[in-house]
Structures are given as structure tokens and as C-alpha cells.
Amino acid sequence: MAIFFKLIPHVLSWVGIVLVLLRGLSGHRSVVTAASMAGFVIGVVGAFILLGSFPGSFSFGIIKSALGVSFLLLWGVSVATIYLSTGRRAAISGGGRFVNTKLGAGVVSGLAGIVAGAVCACRLTGTGGNALAVVLLALAAGALAYALVFAARAVDRLLPASFTVSMSGMLAAVVALLLFSSSSILRLDLFSPLSMKVMKGVHDFVHQFMESILIPDHLFVRPVVWKYIGFLFGKEVGFWGGMVIWFTPAVLIAMAIHFERLPSVAHIRQGAQRRRLLAAAIRVQRFRLVIPVLSLVIFSAAAYQSSFPSVEYWDPKPLPVSASQAGEIVIPKKGDVNLEDGKLHKYLFKQGDSEVRFFVLMTPAGKLTVDLDACAICKPDGYGQAEGSVICYYCKTLIPLETVGRVGGCNPVPVPFTEKADTVVVDGMTLLNSWSATVKATARVKEGGK
How far apart are CA 389 and CA 399, in angstroms? Predict the structure, then answer.
């Protein structure tokens, strides 16, 4: 029953996709119906088998890449649409002609159904992967798809004939619904990684510019200038930069529809007939604006859901530890805390005025790793654990559990340690030095953290 409720937003998103496809490809409704149903079933079953055969980041990476490609395609179509709205005609309009064919309608509907079904299957990974389960899943997915397509077609028949959808508007709505559906699954979410990439790109550019063009303590770079530069190192830059990239395609498509030229009526002598034709064209244009504007609302919902996920992170309170006379921190594997249970276990080491947060984790490969509760990029706000990954609280980047313990990016900084039969041993001085170097490297991030 719990899985059923989790599937509701994904299933409703797919129904919305089918409805938009039926309205945008109104000349090929039977093809859209059959292809979208078949695609949905293939997506559910295929992703279910893939996730069962290759659990971990590989399978999720394939589905996430498909979502990313759809977003990049939307970007390309939006730029082409705003270009064509100027009155120019180019070979790029040939894509629209292909989609209007029976084959094109089937391909688009089938691909949309496959991706939507794959996203739904990510909620079913705990069901098992035997042959009987696959057959039952295929039958259930087929029955559900049939019922929902029937509902979508019923809604489509209620809409007025003048409510048309442009090809670019249709794509915007389909991609928006796919991204909304995936935004509630941490390992498929695109907005948070996008914001992080923007933030990292700005950080790297400013750092390289200041290091290569200016001397860091240049006489003419006054403290007030550094305050403005410091703003560029905050996570707000990544968030707002990500928002611009996120919304621009739908905005461009809406602008292109708004600025479309009305039909010429100069050759019509009767004023009443000219007014009727212009009024009808304006009415159709306004209807065509509904879908891109609705897409903006759906993109907003996806960004909000990504920024404020309804997920409870495992974030234990750091347990205090101390070093022996030899400077070693010894942590037992079993006892009050079981280091081999696959959960994040945090510790706090203090020495004088210095303190270090670190954690011990058993990865899915069955290997222990000791890492700082910080990365080499962000302010050390720490990490939480949920759905097969740890998350950086500062930039909301997800790090698959399989990669924890590796160097690079927003991964927690690994710390050398010695594993014995019943204990994990960490050198206290190494821990302090690693923490100090990491915090110093991220000192330009101005926002306060933990």
C-alpha cells in the first residue's frame, strides 16, 4: 500500500504526458495511445530488470542520463523555436514535420512512455527480480496503462477543438512532467546537481581569475571589493544560476508563441470577416500559450521538490572520541554502535581549541571507509544519508554510497585509517591536519555553517 501511494505522483505525471501528446499529435491519436502504453510497460519492466541486475549508481545513471538528454533536447528546440518565430525558415523545422508523421508520433510517444515507466520502476526496486515477478509486473503495468490512457482520452475529448498545442510546447510539457516525476527520487533529481555544477563553475572561474589576473592581496582590491567577490562563492549563485538554466527553455517557447505573426488579412475586403479571422487566430495563440505557461509551473514544482525533498536523512549526533597517548583514535566495530550496519556513524574529536567531525561507513561493497564530515569544495555543513547515497547539506549534491571513500568533487574527504579485527584506528594528528587543510581551502565560502 505504501508503494501505491508513492507511485501516485509518477503515474499522474505520465497521464499528463499522454494527455499532452494526444492534444499535440491530434492527427495520430491511435498511434499515440498504443505507443505510449507499450513504452510505459517496456520502461517499467526494463528498468525493473536493470535495477535488479545492476543495483547501484550504474542503473540510476542510465535513467538519469535519459532525463538529462530530454532536457538538453528541450533546450535545443526552444532556441530553434525562438529563432523560427522571427519569420526565418530553416532545415531545423524538419524535425517538426517528422513528429507530425505517424512514425514520428509513435517514436515520441514510445520514448516518453519508456522514460516515464523507468522513473516509476525506481520505486519498485525492493520487490525482487525473479521471472514470476517480472511477468506479474508487466501484466499490472499493462492494465494500469490501459486504464489511465482511457482516462486521458476521455479528458482529451472534453477539451475544445481550438485548444491546440504547438510541437515545442508539447515537448516543454512532456519534459517538465518527467522532471517533476523524477525530482521526488533523490538519485534521479536533476535540479540539485545542476545548481551544484553552476556553483562549482563560478567558484572555479573566480578563483582562477583572481589567481591568474590579479595578485590576491593586490593594493587596489579593497575589502569592500572582496565582499562582492565573496558573494560569488555563496551557494545562492548556484541556486539562481540553476534556476535560469532550468526555466529558460519554457520561457523561450512561450515568447516564441507570443510573438508569432498573425495571419495576413489584407487581401480580405470585408472588415467583419477580417476581424473574425484575427480574433480566431488570437484565441488559438492564447490557447497555445497555456501549455508553456503550465510547464513553467511544473518546472517550479520540480525545483521546489528538489530543494525541499520530503526525505528524512539519517544524521546521527557525533559521538565524542579521544586519542590515546600514542595519538591514535580507536573505534570498536561492534558495541553500542555497529560500524558494519551500512549506516553513517559520526564522531567528534577535540584536541585543545581544535575539533574535527568525521564519520565511518560500510559501503555497499562491504568495505569500511573513514571520511571527514566535509568536502574540498563546500562549507563544511556535513552530510546526511538517504536512499543509497549521502547528501552534502551545503549544495544538496548526492554522492552514491558506492563512491564514498574516493577523492574528488563533493565527495567526503577520505582519511587514512587502519582496520583491525575488531577496531578501526585513525591517527589523531592526521585527522586534525586533514580537517584544517579542508576548512582552509573552503574559507572563501562566506555563508555560515554548522
Answer: 5
Indicate if the pLDDT at residue 449 is higher than 50: no
Domain that holds residue 382: 319-441
Q: Of 157, 188, 219, which residue sits at a domain end?
A: 188
pLDDT higher than threshold 80 for residue 206: no
* pTM given for the model: 0.76
Residue 272 is assigned to a structural domain of this protein: no
Q: How many percent of the chain have pLDDT more than 70?
A: 85
Q: Is residue 277 part of a domain?
A: no
| CB of 265 closer than 8 Å to CB of 277 | yes
Answer whether residue 278 is part of any domain. Answer: no
Per 3-state DSSP, the chain is made up of helix, strand and coil in percentages (nearest 5) of 60, 10, 30
Instruction: Give the integer Cα–Cα distance in Å for 431 and 328.
Output: 10
Residue 275, in any domain of the structure: no
**For residues 254 and 297, is the Cβ–Cβ distance under 8 A?**
no
- Per the CB < 8 A criterion, the answer to whether 295 and 246 are in contact is no
Looking at the structure, tell me whether residues 18 and 162 fall in a common domain: yes
Query: Is the sign of the CA dihedral 28, 29, 32, 37 positive or negative?
Result: negative
Overall number of domains in the chain: 2
CA distance 126 to 142: 20
* Cα gap 179→163, rounded to integer Å: 24
How far from chain centre, in Å, is Cα 351?
Answer: 40
Mean pLDDT over 65-81 rounds to 93
